[in-house]
Amino acid sequence: MGYKEVELRDYEYILSIAEDDKERVFFREEINEDYSHDELGGIKKMPDIVIQAISADEVSKVMKYAYENSIPVTPRGSGTGLVGAAVPLKGGIVIDLSRMNKILELDEENLTLTLEPGVLLMDIGKYVEEFDLFYPPDPGEKSATIGGNISTNAGGMRAVKYGVTRDYVRGLEAVLPNGDVVNLGGKVVKNSSGYALKDLIVGSEGTLGIVTKAILRLLPLPKKALSLLIPFESLERAIDTVPKIIKSKSIPTAIEFMQREAILAAEEFLGKSFPDKSSDAYLLLTFDGNSTEEIEKNYENVANICLEAGALDVLISDTEERQESIWSARGCFLEAIKALTTEMDEVDVVVPRNQIGKFVTFTHELERTANIRIKSFGHAGDGNLHIYILRDDLDEEVWQSKLKEVMQIMYDKAKELEGQVSGEHGIGFAKKGYLKESLPSECIGIMQGIKLAFDPKNILNPGKVCE
Questions:
Q1: Model confidence pLDDT, tens digit, residues 92-139
Q2: Where is the FAD-binding PCMH-type domain (predicted)?
């Protein structure tokens, strides 16, 4: 479908929607280069118009105008995505929702938080903790907006025990491609009323509708938490222990795996020392609960399982300072690895938990055979791996060809192990080809049919996910 060429009068109309506030609406040369890309960086395209929206009404009016005039629109939050989902591939309008950042209501009786999409993940945790409440999803990028987390169904480290973003979205207000505003779900705990449209919007990466309000489910805040850092002589041995931990009745909040190289990079990046770096591989576990006895019972059980499975030691972090030193290192692995090289790209495959060891061993072999540096860390407890391919000093042509080759090999391996293309970052533009290869054509056809039903003119975030 052809799109309208954006003109000055389109900008003037969008400006009028924003009540002529030139601080919030930008045209062509005035647009900051940041709007041309997200954290992936490799895919860039400048939009023609950017509006920093401040209400659902503005989003609705922009979409209505765009729909009537066939102008493509890309919604955007903090731009921290890693698959090019917020890149305006067809130009047109970018709606930046980061100014819509108000917390609207905390309902302590229904345990829900109603808020706008631009609220940052880090601010949600701080806000609800003051009321002794807890928002469990914990993706690594704390400066992401909740709208972006909802759009990608972000996961994070606590998924083992608590699940992912979708499990905590009770209701959504969304603007459809034609400008209509719909409310999906609500504060109800159960809902069997027709198709799960709310759950379709969650994880749709801004291709079906634009989230302008969300009602999140909260839990009572666990009163105590404790971390275990468990060194093993090899990564294989560490990861082979995970199914035994999961099978025990003592489910940790998080089970992460890491290797010495990532720890050393994090130490250098943070300028802080890590409690232990004598081993090649570690499991990092957290337990939370309401009493010291409850947590001790769980961690002692798991510590014994690990020692029986060949762990070299069990280091207990029971002070806030110790926990902070371990988790701040884990939290900056991505940035630390990025600092080690000139450019990198990532595979965030997810495989069944009992196949993690196989997959990570496979990446070590691939590093040797493909002669390119590959670093990994990830969520051992839920099978979601973050594997980074580093460019170092390769020239552009060699880098692109190696990257393509290595990624293809990894996605093929994930499919062989009955895994999926993305555990939490989404598909966006960068992973579209791999999604098509990994799913049956019938499933891709159904996805395309859903897109058509929501967006017959294909103006909302075109060129992403299943197109």
A1: 999 999 999 999 999 999 999 999 999 999 999 999 999 999 999 999
A2: 43-221
Q: Could you report the per-residue pLDDT of 307-340, keeping only the tens digit for each?
A: 999 999 999 987 777 788 888 888 888 888 888 8
Statement: residue 437 has pLDDT above 80: yes
Which residue has 């389109």 as its token pair? Answer: 10
CATH 3.30.70.2740 positions along the chain are: 341-425
Span 341-425 CATH architecture: 2-Layer Sandwich (3.30)
Is domain 8-99 in CATH 3.30.43.10, yes or no?
yes
Question: Do 236 and 380 touch, CB atoms closer than 8 A?
Answer: no
| Cβ burial 30-44 (10 Å sphere, 16+ → b, else e) | ebeeebbbbbbeebe
Query: Using CA atoms, how far apart are residues 283 and 245, in angstroms rounded to an integer?
Result: 11
Q: How many helices (H) and strands (E) does the chain have?
A: 15, 18
CATH architecture of the domain formed by 103-220? 2-Layer Sandwich (3.30)
Q: Of 393, 359, 401, 395, whose CA–CA distance to 378 is shortest?
A: 359
Cβ atoms 418, 173 nearer than 8 A = no
CA 56 remoteness from chain centre? 24
pLDDT at position 334: 84
Q: Which two tokens stand for residue 70?
A: 């066939």
DSSP assignment string, 75-96 = EESSS--SSSTT--TT-SEEEE
Report d(CA 333, CA 191) in Å as an integer: 39
What is the C-alpha to C-alpha distance for residues 255 and 299, in angstroms, rounded to an integer? 12
Cβ atoms within 10 Å, residue 241: 25
Residue 1 has a pLDDT of 64
Q: Which CATH class is domain 224-334?
A: alpha beta
Strand ranges (DSSP E) for 117-203? 133-134, 169-175, 181-185
Token output for 125 = 């945790």
Q: Closest Cα to residue 259, out of 388, 409, 420, 391?
A: 388
Q: What is the mean pLDDT of residues 221-246?
A: 92
Quick: pLDDT tens for 378-420: 899 999 999 999 999 999 999 999 999 999 999 999 999 999 9
For 162, counting Cβ atoms within 10 Å of its Cβ (0-12 exposed, 13-18 middle, 19+ buried), the class is buried
